[in-house]
Amino acid sequence: MNQENFDYLKDKLFYLGFGDKLNADLEKNITRGQEKFKLHMVGEFSKGEKKESVEYAVDFTKSKQNDMYFLNSYRATLAATENEKSQTFYINKGKGVTAKEAYNLLDGRAVHKDLVNKEGNPYSAWLQLTGKPDENGNHKIQQFHTAWGYDLDKSLAKHPIKELTDPAQKESLIKSLEKGNLQSVAFHREGRDEKMFIEANPKEKIINVYNDKMQKQFQGINERKTQSVKKDDVQQAPDEKKKVDKQDKAEEPDLQDKKTKGKKVST
Question: Using CB atoms within 10 A of its CB, is residue 64 exposed (0-12), middle (13-18) or buried (19+)?
Answer without folding.
Answer: exposed
